[in-house]
Design brief:
Distance between the termini: 37 Å
Number of domains: 1
Number of helices: 2
Radius of gyration: 20 Å
Oligomer: single chain
Strand content: 35-45%
CATH class: Mainly Beta
CATH topology: Methylamine Dehydrogenase, Chain H
Number of strands: 33
CATH architecture: 7 Propeller
CATH superfamily: YVTN repeat-like/Quinoprotein amine dehydrogenase
Length: 450
């Protein structure tokens, strides 16, 4: 996967790159039976969304306002990678009164680009604002990718009948292209380089394919360095005749585009039922998990072949009805990890056989967030949201062997909110966690002191 548009760090953008593989290119935690995980927790009172890396030791945190903030605004901090205390701060970043989890990425020019609400900001490494632009679509945006030729692409999040728009900008924040999608799009887009020999500005490969989840189908657009062009021959439907909900993000893996359905739970629908979007609040944990869904179908993961939209694999992690999720699956070397947050359960499937998948393992955990995989140690990191009693909750991180499902470690993060946010690898057998109101550093330590 090419990342030539990004700063040469291990994690310059959410999910690690444009495929959204959530796969760390760094050494894993390498947990032994004599090791444990330790959490350093910081409560922010706001909505942290993601960490990204720049140079070694340069860790940046992006988020938006919290339920007690008077105004809606984004923010960026450079934080100490050990204590998580702020070393530099951006100050409030206008969001157009749209409160939603945006995105941040480190461009190959060294600057940070942040989309939040209906604004895009360019920041220096000291978190100072270099440029600001109000995006053409006055709505909340989610997801920001940097393409190989250095251009920046983002999209507004929609659930209703108003179509979403893809907006492409240059590094100076000038809009260079836009296209209205056939449908509203709730999830974040992914991109894959086409590998064609044509070159764009600066000699970079300007050709790539963008994959965008709509209300019923997944759409493919080609970027040729100057414009976006829809591929009318590739738009497979993931909505089934028996119903089901909308998809969140797509991920590209093993020559397929993957997503999970049943994402527009009532809380999400309520938030986007008005413009600007409904402000965040602190829900009762038990109510979050028991609110009825408008569908009765189980969660399904769908994998569409890149070269044949009619070649599809569908996987069901549990057979329980009315399942739901708020994050996409993880795909790595013919293993697909999928789950059901609403009913509890995470499963891995071997899809090397083609149209069907054999379940490799199942665990009775309740994941909700974007996972992280260390391929060199086969360690899958994901959360397990637990109800300790009717009013007390704990969001734990668990480390599983992706091949067997065996749990290698568990640690409470100090967070108590169900979340769909992002993990980020660290530099020394550690990683970083985000949830509403809380961030944490998770460190592997030896119990023997060796």
């Amino acid at each position: 996967m090419s990342r030539s548009g990004y700063w040469p760090s291990a994690w310059p953008v959410e999910c690690g790159g444009n495929h959204r593989s959530k796969t760390a290119p760094t050494a894993g935690l390498d947990l032994a039976p004599t090791d444990r995980l330790v959490a350093t927790t910081r409560h922010t009172g706001r909505w942290p969304v993601m960490f990204v890396q720049r140079d070694p030791g340069e860790l940046y945190l992006h988020g938006t306002s919290g339920p007690h903030d008077a105004d809606v605004a984004g923010w960026v901090e450079r934080v100490d990678p050990i204590s998580l205390r702020p070393l530099a701060v951006s100050g409030p970043l206008p969001a157009g009164d749209h409160e939603w989890c945006g995105s941040m990425a480190v461009h190959r020019n060294g600057d940070l680009y942040v989309v939040n609400g209906s604004f895009l900001h360019r920041l220096g490494k000291d978190c100072s604002v270099k440029a600001e632009v109000k995006l053409p679509v006055d709505h909340a945006h989610n997801g920001l990718l940097i393409l190989d030729d250095g251009t920046i692409i983002t999209k507004d999040i929609r659930l209703g009948d108003v179509p979403s728009t893809l907006t492409v900008l240059d590094p100076e924040l000038a809009v260079v292209a836009s296209v209205e999608l056939p449908e509203a799009s709730m999830g974040r887009l992914a991109a894959a380089t086409d590998g064609r020999p044509d070159r764009g500005p600066g000699g970079a490969d300007a050709h790539c394919s963008l994959y965008v989840p709509g209300k019923t189908s997944v759409f493919r657009y080609r970027w040729d360095g100057t414009g976006l062009h829809r591929d009318d021959g590739w738009s497979p439907s993931y909505r089934q005749p028996d119903g089901g909900g909308l998809a969140w993000d797509v991920t590209v893996g093993d020559d397929r585009v993957w997503l999970m359905d049943n994402g527009n739970i009532p809380g999400i629908e309520a938030r986007f039922s008005q413009v600007p979007t409904l402000r965040s609040s602190t829900p009762t944990p038990s109510r979050t998990l028991t609110t009825p869904t408008p569908w009765t179908t189980p969660v399904r993961a769908h994998g569409f072949a890149i070269d044949d939209p009619n070649d599809v694999i569908r996987l069901t992690p549990t057979e329980h009805p009315s399942g739901w999720v708020i994050a996409p699956p993880l795909v790595h070397e013919d293993i697909v990890v999928t789950w059901d947050t609403g009913n509890t359960g995470i499963a891995a499937f071997d899809v090397s056989g083609g149209r069907g998948g054999d379940m490799l393992w199942f665990q009775p955990f309740r994941p909700s967030m974007q996972p992280l995989l260390y391929p060199d140690t086969a360690e899958l990191v994901i959360n397990d949201f637990r109800m300790l009693d009717e009013n007390e909750t704990s969001d734990d991180l668990v480390v599983l062997d992706i091949r067997t499902g065996r749990m290698k470690a568990r640690v409470p993060t100090g967070a108590s909110r169900l979340n769909g946010m992002f993990l980020c690898p660290g530099w020394d057998r550690d990683l970083y966690y985000c949830s509403s109101g809380t961030v944490a550093r998770i460190q592997a330590e030896s119990l023997t002191g060796g």
